[in-house]
Amino acid sequence: MSIQWNGVMPAVTTKFTSDDKLDFNMFEVNMKAQLDAGVSGIILGGTLGEASTLLEEEKRELVKHTVSLTDGKVPVIMNIAEQTTKGAILAANKAEQDGAKGLMMLPPMRYKASDHETVAYYSDVARNTSLPIMVYNNPVDYKIEVTLDMFEELLKFDNIQAVKESTRDISNVTRMINRFGDRLKILSGVDTLALESLLMGSDGWVSGLVCAFPAETVAIYKLAKAGRIDEALKIYRWFLPLLELDINSLLVQNIKLAEVATGIGTENVRAPRLPLHGTERERVLAIIEEGLRTRPTLPNLSAN
């Protein structure tokens, strides 16, 4: 299965039981909601997936189970967030063996690599996997920016194909299109800039709040791409207070609480994370409850 690198690709949460095991029953409920809404890929093992807390065997089990659940309907993409080049290559190879069809890949973790080191890191992984790669470019959170000059070198590899663009600089979309055209597919990685990014020419949206609101997220994407901007804006303006729950250090807990409210998740997180409590929990619940109270009726997406 080739990856088109467009549409809405949820960075899904990992579901846990109350006794801290993988909860594949609730995961299946969420996957059905995502697929029914029309997402174009499933991304595992990101920040929302609590990958840093998952055991190696759990990651592999998660990939295999998701491949089985999706049954070829959409590609399964595994995030690579490793401290060493050797570890990244090994993780990429395991993901491929387990049935993943693509990789989302962060720069080296914990070590602030230079531009040269970062290019070498991505290049070495690209040489050692046949899977297509989406570079996760998030200098705000991970302190390393993959610049346009660095992409110029990386795009010599046919399997480096896309970027999850999370610089927060919306004009970077235009810079990338001007420089690389269709050679580099661009997916917005910031929920609160997603519509703006799509209107500037991004191919897709790697979303967080889609985990709780898949139909609304896909509707915004489809309406924007169909030129039905006013309809997309109406939903997006309703959605923004919820989308802001994603640009927060407690994004995992926030989004899992939203999944509970929409009936497609649980609050269970893995320690040291803990569910929200106190005034912060009440604040987030109020945002979610207002979103549910004012939830829009979605337009006919097949209408001309």
Structure description:
There is one protein chain. With 304 residues, the chain is α/β, with parallel strands linked by helices. It has a single domain (7-293), classed as TIM Barrel (Alpha-Beta Barrel). The chain is 45% helix and 12% strand. The protein has helices at 24-37, 56-70, 85-97, 115-127, 139-142, 148-154, 171-180, 194-199, 214-225, 229-243, 251-261, 278-293; strands spanning 7-10, 42-44, 76-80, 102-105, 133-137, 160-165, 185-188, 204-207. Strand 2, helix 2 (56-70) and strand 3 form a beta-alpha-beta unit. The chain is globular and about 50 Å long.
Features:
4-hydroxy-tetrahydrodipicolinate synthase, TIM Barrel, eight-stranded parallel sheet, 45% helix, 4-hydroxy-tetrahydrodipicolinate synthase activity, alpha/beta, 304 residues, 12 helices
List the helices and strands and how they pair.
Blueprint: E1 7-10, H1 24-37, E2 42-44, H2 56-70, E3 76-80, H3 85-97, E4 102-105, H4 115-127, E5 133-137, H5 139-142, H6 148-154, E6 160-165, H7 171-180, E7 185-188, H8 194-199, E8 204-207, H9 214-225, H10 229-243, H11 251-261, H12 278-293
Parallel strand pairs: 1-8, 2-3, 3-4, 4-5, 5-6, 6-7, 7-8
Helix pairs in contact: 1-2, 1-9, 3-4, 4-6, 9-10, 11-12
Can you summarize this structure?
With about 300 residues, the chain is an alpha/beta fold. It is about 45% helix and about 10% strand. Helix 4 links the parallel strand 4 (about 100-105) and strand 5.
Shape: globular
Distance between the termini: 30 Å
Task: Name the CATH homologous superfamily.
Answer: Aldolase class I
Number of helices: 12
- What portion of residues is helical? 40-55%
Q: Tell me the CATH topology.
A: TIM Barrel
**Helix/strand/pairing category:** alpha/beta
Tally of distinct domains: 1
CATH top-level class: Alpha Beta
In round numbers, the mean pLDDT is: 97
Question: Whole-number radius of gyration?
Answer: 18 Å
Q: Which regions have little confidence, pLDDT < 50, spanning 5+ residues?
A: none
| CATH architectural name | Alpha-Beta Barrel
**Largest sheet, strands/sense/barrel:** 8 strands, parallel
Counted beta strands: 8
Strand order of the largest sheet: 1-8-7-6-5-4-3-2
DSSP strand (E) fraction? Answer: 5-15%
User: Secondary-structure element order, as H and E?
Assistant: EHEHEHEHEHHEHEHEHHHH
Family: Belongs to the DapA family.
Pfam families: DHDPS (PF00701)
Binding site for pyruvate: 206
Keywords: Lyase
